[in-house]
Design brief:
By secondary structure, the protein is an alpha/beta fold. The protein has 28 helices and 26 strands. α13 crosses α14.
């Protein structure tokens, strides 16, 4: 079964299993139902995320090892909490070959390795290219050293990189000659994009994809995790234990990146059979607007990006679209359509960083000219309306991709139609599998990691799972989506921030205010950009929005963010071929801005103008998420206002001592102001989480509620069980401009008049309270009737 809520923690060496165990008391006090942990298996030394698993057979030593893991499970059991565990079936880390026993064995034994079939390697293409050498690859091979470990076993060292060698291959010869005898070849790091012969996680050469569709590979990669799951008992996690959902055991699994798998549906059916029918099972699946999960997947839902788009979008004012669009066009000197930017970005990705994958697919069309086949494959991959299809399911997505590719490139109609026919005739064939796997990679890298850094009209919308062309979400759309979620996916996760979001929920909430002040925003940005230009105009739009959204932010954090953003955009610099003078100008920009007293004063004045409304939006979206359908997740630290940008900024250490102290004050009946301390957000979060945990019967059903009166459009309200109502304020700048709520009222369901706001503890007068009174202290309310 699913918990009432989850709390996501990013485990690493500095915040290990022991530190997580020490936090279980706080999480229980906060009202959380389960800890949602990042991957816990052995990963690359120094990894701050754990998605680069090097040994799926043991717990991470840096995070505390098996003893630490068991201590954490005991602490969770004592606190009455369950564990949702993040697992990574798609790939393993190979940056340090000797740390990964599978990869090391492959490098030593080549095609004869017992693990050769664990990886998706084209062995017919010759020795395995490993892209690690600096420029001038031939000369770099002279830097190889032949070394021996403490047991006398030889290896080839290149700077900090150590590679095992085939048995008997190092008995004689120079290091370079020994290298020529291996099952692999060290090559220029830039050649990886076009020449790799093993499938990767996106374009990351240090993450090698595994063939988990093979039952033997599934068994090897899941044996330890399934042992951990079984600790909870044969009938489900924590059977016979205390607390919700079987506390103290692994109540569920979160599957990372299922779209990268050859057969996601088959994998999930195998996993479901292994963990049991009642275990909570979620997939990190990015759904397009209106897209549904494949019906055959035996899962409970997604990790919540669909809910994120809806909930954050409803706090954006669609009336601001015109002026903001006009200003973006004026500032950049162009008005490109978002779909055109996306298509160009996808094609750039297919032609460069994912060229090896495209070439491998093209080789499956031997009857075509290789150049034309490669062109057609890239065009088809760039044309999917969603991440991928799952033939025979999802055929419509493939049909649309074929139609779009033919329309954009009529000269490629014949090879595109050939691929279409073959994929439909052989939905389990290699062509269908590789096209579908790779289309998701092209979409993710082309849209999320490229176009979302290029098309910067209004970056609050440029979020994973988002659609920047849709300027906000109508209240009716939010209600319809929430009702559908309750009816069809009541155990799905909902979220507002994750380790992968481009901006934290509170940055987006503040940026949403700009949609209500488009003229003021444009005027302010014109002045700032004139005084402190950047090498690229669309990057300026992104930079000023993020500076305001994350303010106050120091120069080092901002410089690191802009370095990543500019290289992801790939317009004036990039990761593969950086432009030193451009990179230098971008790196120096934040310090120059922050050293300018006039600029700082102007930014602070503008932030002071938008911050209160941003805090109102933050509280509103938090309540809508926590009280709405699905299982809400709280990303670490976001129970207070937390203004982070993309990874790794959003993995910064969290001050849990501060949060404990504030929670203690709240429990002493303190009603804090809505200010920069974030205590009001903690109050809203704890109130909702505790209610979800201790009165779960209230959180069923969904019914939109409509306010009556002149400010009705500024109220977002819904009822769950007839005994619970959530109310949030939207578009607070507009509300203030019209003089407040006036005599607007909200009729509560059933005509009852015995409601209490659990956030303030105050009774609510009547069955149709005035919103001016109900929302007098806070811009949100969570109303319940007596049990």
């Amino acid at each position: 079964m699913s918990p009432s809520s989850t709390y996501r923690l990013q485990l690493r060496a500095e915040f290990d299993f022991r530190r997580a165990a020490e936090l279980t008391g706080y999480l229980a006090d906060l009202g959380v139902g389960a800890l949602y942990a990042s991957p816990m298996l052995e990963s690359t030394s120094g990894s701050n995320h754990g998605y680069d698993v090097v040994d799926p057979g043991r717990a991470s030593e840096e995070r505390g090892g098996e003893a630490g893991r068991r201590a954490l499970m005991a602490a969770l059991r004592s606190a009455g909490l369950g564990l949702l565990l993040d697992i990574v079936p798609n790939h393993v880390g190979v940056t340090v070959p000797t740390a990964n026993p599978w990869w090391s064995d492959v490098l030593i034994n080549g095609r004869a390795s017992r693990y050769a079939g664990h990886f998706d390697i084209d062995w017919d293409a010759g020795p395995l290219p490993l892209p690690v050498l600096a420029s001038g690859a031939e000369e770099e091979l002279d830097r190889l050293e032949l070394v021996r470990d403490g047991n006398g076993y030889p290896g080839l060292r290149y700077y900090e990189h150590l590679f095992p060698v085939a048995n008997g291959s190092a008995d004689q010869g120079t290091p370079r000659e020994v290298h020529e005898r291996q099952h692999y070849r060290l090559v220029d790091w830039r050649r990886g994009a076009a020449e790799l012969t093993y499938r990767r996680f996106f374009d990351v050469s240090g993450l090698a994809a595994v063939r988990v569709e093979d039952p033997a590979v599934f068994a090897d990669s899941h044996r330890e995790v399934l042992r951990w799951v079984a600790e909870g008992g044969p009938g489900g996690p924590g059977e016979g234990g205390s607390g919700e959902g079987g506390s103290g055991g692994i109540i569920g699994l979160r599957v990372d990146h299922p779209d990268g798998l050859t057969d996601p549906g088959g994998y999930l059916r195998r996993l479901r059979a292994a963990v049991g029918k009642d275990r909570w099972l979620l997939v990190e699946k990015i759904l397009g607007v209106g897209e549904a999960l494949p019906a055959s997947w035996p899962v409970d839902g997604t990790t919540g990006y669909d809910a994120l788009r809806e909930i954050c979008g409803v706090f954006v004012d669609p009336a601001g679209a015109g002026l903001i669009t006009q200003f973006a066009a004026e500032h950049t000197g162009s008005r490109p359509a978002a779909h055109a930017v996306e298509r160009r970005a996808r094609r750039d990705v297919a032609d460069t960083i994912l060229a090896a994958e495209v070439r491998r697919i093209a080789a499956l069309l031997p009857e075509l000219d290789r150049a034309k086949a490669t062109d057609a494959v890239a065009e088809l991959l760039c044309s999917f309306p969603v991440y991928r299809s799952y033939l025979p399911e999802g055929r419509e997505a493939l049909d649309v991709a074929v139609s779009v590719a033919r329309s954009n490139r009529p000269d490629l109609a014949e090879p595109v139609e050939l691929m279409h026919r073959r994929m439909l005739a052989e939905p389990d064939g290699e062509l269908a599998r590789r096209v579908q796997q790779t289309s998701g990679m092209v979409t993710a890298k082309g849209v999320e990691d490229t176009a979302f850094y290029r098309w910067n009209r209004f970056v609050a919308l440029n979020e994973v799972g988002g659609d920047p062309t849709r300027f906000g979400v109508p209240v009716t759309e939010l209600h319809a989506a929430a009702a559908a979620r309750e009816a069809g996916w009541p155990r799905t996760m909902t979220t507002l921030s994750t380790h992968d979001t481009k901006r934290s929920e509170d940055v987006r909430a503040r940026l949403a205010v700009l949609s209500e002040l488009p003229g003021e925003w444009a005027e302010a940005t014109r002045g700032w950009a004139a005084a402190h230009p950047l090498p690229e105009r669309s990057l300026e739009l992104l930079a000023w929005q993020c500076l305001v959204g994350a303010w106050p932010i120091d120069a080092e954090r901002m410089a690191a963010y802009l370095a990543k953003a500019s290289r992801e955009a790939k317009l004036v610099t990039n990761h593969v071929n950086p432009v030193p003078e451009v990179d230098r100008a971008i790196a120096e920009w934040p310090a120059a801005v922050l050293a300018d007293p006039a600029a700082v004063a102007s930014i602070e004045e503008f932030v002071a103008r938008v911050a209160p409304a941003g805090r109102s939006n933050s509280l509103g979206q938090k309540l809508v998420q926590l009280a709405g359908p699905g299982v809400p997740d709280v990303y670490q630290g976001t129970e207070l206002f937390e203004y982070s940008l993309v990874d790794p900024d959003n993995r910064r250490p969290v001050d849990f001592a501060e949060r404990r102290a504030l929670l203690a004050r709240l429990d002493d009946h303190w009603l804090p102001p809505v200010d920069a301390t974030g205590a009001a957000k903690l109050l809203v979060t704890a109130s909702a989480l505790r209610l979800r945990r201790y009165r779960p019967e209230l959180f069923s059903g969904y019914r939109p509620l409509t306010a009556d009166g002149p400010a009705a459009a500024h109220a977002l309200a819904f009822a769950r069980d007839p005994g619970l109502v959530a109310v949030a304020t939207r578009l607070p700048i507009g509300l203030a401009a019209r003089g407040g709520w006036a005599d607007t009222v909200l009729a509560l369901p059933g005509g009852a008049d015995d409601w209490t706001d659990v956030i303030t503890g105050e009774s609510v007068g009547g069955s149709a309270p005035r919103l001016a009174e109900l929302l007098d202290r806070y811009p949100v309310a969570l109303l319940v009737r007596p049990a």
